[in-house]
Write a structure and sequence with these properties.
The chain is an all-alpha fold and 63 residues long. The protein is built from two helices and no strands.
Length: 63
């Protein structure tokens, strides 16, 4: 579990770094670079959410 937690934290830390860089780029007027960095940050957040055990919909609806 510690490995899973550390991987999740690493992804979230990377996302924060991307968001910070995006903010700097946006303030400098480079909107395209900021947008790319935001997309990279969102991807890291998505990856962080998918690390670890996943719950599947195993219950079938009644007919």
């Amino acid at each position: 579990m510690n490995e899973t937690k550390s991987k999740r934290e690493a992804c979230l830390k990377t996302a924060v770094n991307f968001f910070d860089s995006a903010s700097i780029q946006a303030e400098a007027g480079d909107i395209k670079a900021a947008a790319v960095l935001i997309l990279k940050a969102l991807d890291q957040e998505r990856r962080a959410g998918s690390i670890g055990p996943q719950v599947l919909q195993l219950i079938k609806p009644r007919q």
